[in-house]
Structures are given as structure tokens and as C-alpha cells.
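SEQUENCE-TO-STRUCTURE ENTRY
===========================
What this section holds: a protein sequence and its matching fold, both as plain text.
Question of interest: how does this chain fold, as expressed in C-alpha cells?
***
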Amino acid sequence: MQGTILIIDGVATNRIMLKVQLSAAYYRVVQTDSVANALSVAQRCCPDLVLTAMTLPDGGAADVAAALAADPSLAQVPIIAVSGQNDNASRIEALSAGIDDVLHQPLGDVILQARIRSLIRSRSSRDDLSLQHEAAQTFEQPLSERECLAEIRNSKVALVAHDAPTAAQWAARLQSLVPYHLHSHQIGDIQQLMTDPVPDVIVVELTKTATGPGLRLLADLRARAATRNSVVIAIPSPADANVAAEALDRGAHDVLQSGFNVQELALRLSTQLQHKARNDRLRATVRNGLRAAVEDPMTGLYNRRYARPFLDRVARNAVDCDEHFALMLIDLDHFKQVNDRYGHPAGDAVLVEASNRLLKQLRPVDLLARVGGEEFMIVMPGLGAAQASEIAERLCRQINATPFQVAGIDEPIHVTTSIGLAIGGGDPCAGPSRKSRPTSVTDLIADADRALYGAKDAGRNQVTLSSVAA
């Protein structure tokens, strides 16, 4: 089954015909006949989409939308209304009431199926983002409608038409109805659409003479990283249900099936931009949550949770490529004394500055992670013992050569560091000398740790190379 669709229609023959039509496309179909029953039936069947007649025995499609919106679990379910006539005024009224689209009878199977696929796909994407948001343990509250409206006021909208005069005319007619920044383009200037900042919404005209290029542009926009999260709205000109259906299947978020209508476009822009604002906020909080899970909040370095998988990848690549890599464990000497004498805020400042000093000496491919209170790990792909030892000595000097100046502390703070160095990687079949070296990442970490304690036992402020390093 592709999903569950709730049909609401007071005419039994209409429900039967729609059920046959949708069942043939492998949807599970649930039926009811009134607004009064809509909410209870929807709560039982949890539909992926609602298909309702515009007019019902006890109300209409707008009443269905209001009933579902009252239940948070159903508020985001997409709704398609079916009208007995192609009436622009009633369509605008329905869209204003929160209906996602209005189709008119006779109901073409091509556009109906495409619209259902598009709306269910969009809802699934939003649901996936919401689940990722929860999994990342982010706690920002979702945007309210007022916050959404405030956030989208400065949105950038690109109007892409077959010719420049049409695009300019669209912009002129639309400008008085919306607060957005409107930019007109011809169908061939995709390069301008990629200019940063990319548009929040791209409206594309699909004419008879440029249907092919327009449809290819839709697919291109959805595939490119720069515009992947931009909203795409297609406008067949003249109206063509088959072209509209093709546009939806090519990735358009929305279509104006009846051609350009300035009021309808203004409504669809507002709705789609509100969806985009919420989705962008979810994506941002997911990224922030995932980043927080692998970053040390004080120094901005990666933490142990990130460092170990990184080390595992470097170790595998080193064996595959018959290369070595270096692992350093670094500990600031007598750091407890810094905290005890100067206070923890001063100690934190020393840790941040020490991180910066170490980081400046490393290559972009290297990893520096904070893995404990005053403990750091460095992973350096492609280095053998000689090069790694030289770098480790330089890192040691970066810490001990210059005292730390901390705001609020009159005297400079002298800090030294000890470093344990181990070498991993290489060809596991390289001969007897290789056999004595650690054969797993766990062994390598233990070896570097022993080297670190060796440096401390030898008096601190120095580098100790593992006795089994190559």
C-alpha cells in the first residue's frame, strides 16, 4: 500500500468511483459522508491525505480543514477539495482556508494521482525532518504562524517566464499583493538563479513552445545542491492538466493548473514559504543538534564521540593504501593547579587558547579533538614516526614557550604539556617489524596512552614515542 486516503463526499456514487480510482493505484481508501464524521474517522484511520467534496451535506471543505486543524496529529494532513465546477472565486476561498489544492470535475486521473503523490511526498519529507529533529534532541519550539509570516517577509522570489516581458508583467501584477523581493528571469538564465543568495521560491512558466526546457529546469533545480531546498512552483501556460501532472512528478512543490492567476499565486507563495520556513528551521536545529553531539561546546573542537570513528576510518584507509598515520594523546601538565590557583574560568580560557595554538600547527586533513578535561587527541593521516615526532615537538613548544595571558589575571600563566605518540597503519603483511606494532585501533590508543604516561614519568613537558612505533 502507498498510503491511506480518506474520502469525504455526501454522494455515494462519487465515493465509489473515487475508491475504485484510488484502489487501482494501491492506496488504502477510507470513506465518510459528512463534516460531522470527518474528525472521528480521521483519528481512527490516520490518513496520509484527505480528498473531500467542496460541498458536503453539513458544510464544506473549509469546515473539514478546520476540524482537522483542531487536532495536532492531523493538522498537517494535506487536503484536496473536489469542486463541481472550475470556479476561480471558490478555489481562492478554499486555498485561503488552508486547502492544499482544488481539482474540478470531471476529475482526470493523471492530475489527481500526480497531486496526491506530490502532497504525500511533501508531508513525508516534513515528517522525516521532524523525526530527525527529535532524534537530534533539539529543543527549539516550532515556528508559530506569526513568526513564520515575519520570517518570510524578506523572501526572494524568482519569476521565470518564456520571455522577459511576461516575467516583468508577472512581477508588476504580483508586487502589490506580496511583501517579497521579486526578480524576473527568462527560461534560459539558470546561472542567475544559482547566484548566492539563491531564491527561496522559483516560479517557472511552462509554455507549449518551452515545455521541455521548463520541465528539465524543474528537475535541474531540485537536483542541484544550491537550489535543492528552494520551493519550485510551475505554471502551465495555457492550462494543461498533463503538463501540470508532469511538473509535479518532476519535483515541483506546487502548480497553478489553470494558468497564471495573481491572487492564487500570492496565496500559494505564502503557503509554500511558510512550509519552507518551518522546514528550514527544522533542518537548522537538526544540524545544530548533530553538531552539538560531536563538538566540545567550550573549545569548538570535536569530542571523543566524533574522534573514535574518525580514527577508525583513518586506520582502515591506512591499511588499504599501505600508509602510516600518527596518533597523539596530549595532556596539559598539572592543570589542576591552574584551576585551583586561578579559578575555573581562567582554566577554561587556558584550554581554549591551548586548543587554538595546537590547531594552528595542523593540516586541514588532521583531527584535533578534546577527549577529556585537559586531554586532547590528534590524528594525522599519512605520517610516519620521523615526521610525526618533529610535529609533536613543535606542538609541545607552542604550549610551553609562551605564557598564557588571561583577562582578569595579572600574572602570566605558565603551562607545559606532555605528548604520547604512536604510529599505526601500513601493510599488515609487511614483515616481522610490523607484527610487533598494534594491530587494532584499541591497541594503538592504549599504546599512545602508555607513551603519554612515559612522558609524564620522565618529567613532563616532552614527547615520548611509543616503543613499538615504526
